[in-house]
Amino acid sequence: MYSNLEQIQSGSFSTVYKAWCSTLKKYVALKVIPKQKYTETGIMNEFKIMKLLGKKHPNICSMIDYYEDDNNYILVLEYCECGDLYDFLSIVKRQGSVGHPALIQLDFIKIIHQIISALTYAHNLGIAHRDVKPENILLTKEGNIKLADWGHATLDRVSKDFNIGTDNYRAPETFGCLNGYDTIKCDAWGVGVTLFYLMFGQCPFRNAEIPANGMDLYGFGSSSSSSSLSSSSSSSSNSHKKVAKCVNFQQYLVDPYGFIYRYFLEPIVCVHQGRPYNSNEGKPSFYVWQDMVNIYQIFYVCRIIVDNLATIDADDRFMSSSLILFDKVWNYNNNFNQGGVDHEMKDFNGVTENATLSNGKSNMTNNNNNLERKQIIGKSS
Ligand SMILES: Nc1ncnc2c1ncn2[C@@H]1O[C@H](COP(=O)(O)OP(=O)(O)O)[C@@H](O)[C@H]1O
Ligand SMILES: [Mg+2]
Question: What's the pLDDT score for residue 214?
Answer without folding.
Answer: 60
